[in-house]
Specification:
This protein has one helix at 2-21, and strands at residues 41-47, 60-61, 78-81, 86-89, 92-101, 104-107, 109-111, 117-118, 121-128, 136-143, 159-164, 171-178, 186-193, 202-208, 213-217, 220-225, 236-244, 260-275, 290-294, 317-318, 330-348, 361-367, 378-381, 389-406, 417-418, 420-427, 439-440, 444-446, 453-457, 466-471, 476-481, 488-492, 499-506, 510-518. 4% of the residues lie in helices and 44% in strands. 35% of the residues are buried. It is mainly β. The protein is elongated, with a radius of gyration of 31 Å. A hairpin with a 2-residue loop joins β15 (213-217) and β16 (220-225). The strands form six sheets. Strands 1, 3, 4, 5, 6, 9, 14, 15, 16 and 18 form a ten-stranded mixed sheet that branches. The chain has three domains: 41-275, Jelly Rolls; 290-430, Sandwich (Jelly Rolls), CATH 2.60.120.260; 439-518, Immunoglobulin-like.
Length: 519
């Protein structure tokens, strides 16, 4: 009873904590303002700033006890974050900027350290930046509590600057800082265009996964960090701030300005979602898939053919391009590991916002025999978009091997890529009685019951290609190929345990099922 009470209490605390982190005034079921990321998203944190004060259950209001880094290029030698510069007014978080004397500035800052930290998700904030000509920059960023650990990577945390408006042009920069701020400090900076950034409100998005970190501006993709060195794999907390600008030079940006209020940053909202897209259980597991062959792969850039089915949508197979551009067709042959009842397939192009190699015209082959592919099962043309393309088969196909052939590329280059190839269906071991649309024929089995061996016979040679033996709970026990030209098969059942089994013979157009018993 005590354990039940403690468990219930724990989950109640978690539920209350989650409820406190999501603003009750956030629109119900709101999704990210981004149609590029796909999936299903569940809100995990939000603040609409519709109250009259900062919510201190979520935020710490910063109060600097000493100056932060001086900005001598614009005449600032002392600047600090002060609580009196932070307020909530008219549905916005307000971060004000003041010139307090000829060389000093005060600013506003809030962060969620020890109140809300999280790992992975989609982060979004709608912000009107402060006037950059007044010697200040606005920033939306994340900070890892352990970013000072030195390991040469972002694995254990980083400062992730989604943007800092330290310049007066229509651009900004993202920076990832790792290994602290001392002698071991390293940084990766990416500049990106931001049309109209200094006028009105704009929406920034940060899509963080275990494979990459993407930044969006007003719903448009801007930059990606995908090098494992720079992708963070530990919790981070939120930060909204402004500060003295580090990207300007000249007296006009501060020294010549009058003392008093200079400008302010306004934040309409900040929201954080978690991806709750369910796994697609209609797809075959790829745990036992193996590469049979390919006629081209990029070993220079490490884009191997096996990456087309490794389960990671952010690695991809790519054809050769460095020293050789082999013409189409480009193909990949895959062993599914087991025979399967297949109803369709999907093709996902590379997901790095680069269309080079995205397949246009294609063919798909399916076979039970890797040496006999026959005619294409499917032929078609994919659109140029980088979303997943799913195609249903005209009929259910029983196969073990597939061959995907790229005939052309969306930009007519001699290139091919595939981030993921998937097959829709079920493995034969997962069901008995597949291919009910095939014509049923009779076979004889003797002796039945049997002890060691059993003979199967049927009327016409070449009817069947494979024999399957199933347990009574539907598990595939054995698969055996039937040689062409035969109308009989000797099964060795010596290793089978006593009990009942189902034997199934499968051909291109016919099927036979027989109940067997071993004593």
């Amino acid at each position: 009873m005590r354990l039940l009470f403690l468990t219930t209490f724990f989950f109640l605390i978690v539920a209350l904590s989650h409820a406190q982190m999501v603003d009750s005034e956030t629109p119900e079921n709101v999704q990210p303002a981004n149609d590029k990321i796909g999936g299903e998203w569940e809100l995990n944190f939000s603040d609409e700033f519709n109250g009259s004060v900062v919510n201190t259950l979520k935020w710490n209001i910063d109060n600097s006890t000493k100056s932060r880094a001086a900005r001598p290029n614009i005449g600032i030698y002392d600047w600090r974050w002060k609580p009196e510069n932070v307020s909530v007014e008219n549905g916005n978080l307000i971060l004000k900027v003041y010139k307090t004397n000829g060389s000093s500035m005060t600013n506003g800052s809030i962060q969620s350290h020890k109140k809300y930290t999280t790992q992975y998700g989609y982060f979004e904030a709608r912000i009107k930046v402060g006037d950059a000509t007044k010697g200040t920059h606005t920033a939306f960023w994340l900070q890892g509590p352990n970013m000072s650990n030195v390991d040469g990577t972002a694995n254990d945390g980083a400062e992730i600057d989604i943007f800092e408006t330290a310049w007066t042009g229509d651009y900004t920069k993202s920076v990832v800082h790792i290994d602290g701020y001392g002698a071991d400090h390293q940084a990766s900076t990416k500049k990106y265009d931001t049309p109209g950034i200094h006028d009105g409100f704009h929406t920034w998005g940060f899509h963080w996964t275990e494979y990459f970190m993407d930044i969006y501006y007003d719903g448009v993709f801007k930059v990606r960090y995908s090098d494992p060195k720079w992708v963070v794999h530990s919790p981070e907390f939120l930060w909204l701030s402004n500060g003295a600008s580090f990207g300007l030079t000249g007296d006009q940006y501060f020294k010549d300005l009058p003392t008093g209020f200079l400008t302010q940053t306004e934040v309409d909202y900040i929201r954080v979602w978690k991806n709750v897209t369910p796994a697609d259980d209609t797809l075959l597991s790829k745990d036992d898939w193996e590469l049979i062959s390919t006629n081209t792969e990029d070993t220079y850039g490490d884009h191997l053919a096996s990456y087309a089915f490794d389960g990671n949508p952010f690695t991809f197979w790519h054809s050769e391009w460095k020293d050789n551009h082999p013409p189409h067709p480009h193909e990949i042959q895959i062993d599914l590991g087991k025979t399967a009842n297949c109803t369709g397939f999907s093709y996902l192009p590379r997901q790095d916002h680069n269309p080079n190699g995205n397949v246009a015209d294609y063919q798909l082959f399916a076979s039970k025999d890797v040496d006999n592919w026959g005619d294409p099962l499917l032929s078609g043309t994919f659109g140029a978009e980088s979303n997943k393309k799913t195609v249903e088969f005209p009929n259910t196909i029983f196969c073990r091997y597939i061959k995907f052939v790229a005939l052309s590329e969306v930009n007519n280059n001699a290139l091919t890529n595939a981030a993921e190839i998937d097959i829709i269906g079920e493995y034969a071991e997962e069901q008995v009685g597949i291919f009910d649309e095939l014509k049923m024929v009779d076979i004889s089995a003797y002796p039945n019951p049997f002890r060691d061996h059993i003979n199967l016979e049927w009327e016409q040679a070449n009817e069947f290609s494979f024999c399957h033996i199933y347990s009574m709970d539907g598990r595939l026990i054995r698969e055996q190929k039937i040689e062409r030209g035969n109308n009989k098969l000797l099964l060795d059942g010596a290793m089978l345990k006593r009990g009942n089994y189902v034997v199934e013979l499968i051909g291109d157009e016919v099927r036979a099922v027989k109940l067997l018993s071993k004593f």
